[in-house]
Specification:
alpha/beta
Length: 312
């Protein structure tokens, strides 16, 4: 494999994640192509990217003129783009059969030294790799949403992924200003989702017990452990807080933590069609326009937090 920097990256899929990734690549100096099956999705992507860049320009957050960044972006529905690609990040539907069809085609088109990645958050990299020609050059590259603001990128090795592939994808993420980690074993949920869902399972269990309101549970997380986590991970916190103390508490608390494999509360709310801000109700209720305002508020605070953590 070549050790040269990637010069012809392709972002596959013009959903919300793919559109933002294409913009991020362009902002970081990459000549990037956004591929999608439908032309209409690419037209929408152009509008969304232009609007996002204009907003960043208005905030003084662009280091180059808007038109310079837009000039690095190409949009296409043609699969021939893969014939010259040296890096691909796939963001299509979370369906194994659909991903197999995509990678069976694309891995036969790209040059021999091109690297292929999937942005799956739930499927095993090893299972997707069954459809990849030369799977040693394939790995997971899981971005967190919104990917322009959340620093974490999880680079997951499938059973056939080479260490060189993982390292080059890791280095690419660094070049994009991210905080990547390499996951050496292809485990369900990768790292971040396993940690996130462990907390969510217990939060829902506490709510189902009637021990506290949703507001109290969220506040306890934000102003207790959550206040600590941007600086210290859970394992660092053990050493700094005293391993012997954590051991003593875990001896009685671990056995009392929620053991449910599924959350009855989450299932009931989902069955009622309560999706969260998009439907106006989830665990919380949202007045008209309040959900959109909550998303804007989140992104503004994520940006401020990202600025604070630049040197951490």
């Amino acid at each position: 494999m070549s050790n040269q920097p990637f010069r012809r990256p392709v972002v596959a899929g013009a959903g919300a994640m793919g559109v933002t990734l294409a913009r991020l690549f362009a902002q970081q100096g990459y000549e990037v192509t956004l591929w999608n099956r439908r032309e209409s999705s690419l037209e929408r992507a152009w509008d969304e990217i232009t609007q996002a860049l204009a907003a960043l320009e208005g905030q003084g957050r662009l280091s180059e003129p808007l038109d310079t960044i837009l000039g690095r972006l190409t949009f296409t529905t043609e699969s021939t783009v893969y014939e010259t690609a040296d890096f691909v990040v796939e963001n299509i539907a979370e369906d194994l059969d659909i991903k197999h069809t995509f990678f069976r085609t694309v891995s036969a088109l790209v040059p021999e030294d091109a690297l292929l990645t999937t942005n799956t958050s739930g499927l095993r990299v090893t299972d997707i790799a069954q459809a990849v020609k030369r799977p040693e050059r394939f790995c997971g590259m899981h971005w967190w949403n919104p990917p322009d603001l959340i620093p974490l990128v999880e680079v997951t090795k499938g059973e056939a992924s080479s260490q060189e592939t993982a390292q080059r994808v890791y280095d690419l993420a660094l070049s994009l200003g991210k905080k990547p980690v390499i996951v050496d074993k292809d485990i369900l949920g990768i790292l971040g989702n396993r940690l996130q869902y462990a907390v969510l399972r217990e939060a829902l269990h506490i709510l189902d017990l009637g021990a506290a309101t949703p507001e109290a549970i969220d506040a306890a997380m934000k102003y207790g452990p959550g206040f600590r986590y941007p600086i210290l991970g859970p394992l660092e916190a053990v050493d700094l807080g005293g391993l012997h103390i954590f051991r003593a508490v875990s001896d009685y608390l671990f056995a009392d933590l929620g053991k449910e494999e599924q959350s009855p509360l989450l299932g009931r709310l989902a069955d009622e069609g309560r999706k969260g801000v998009t439907t106006g109700s989830g665990i919380y209720q949202y007045a008209p326009g309040q959900g959109e305002e909550k998303l804007r508020w989140r992104n503004d605070l994520f940006q401020k937090e990202l600025d604070l953590l630049k040197d951490v």
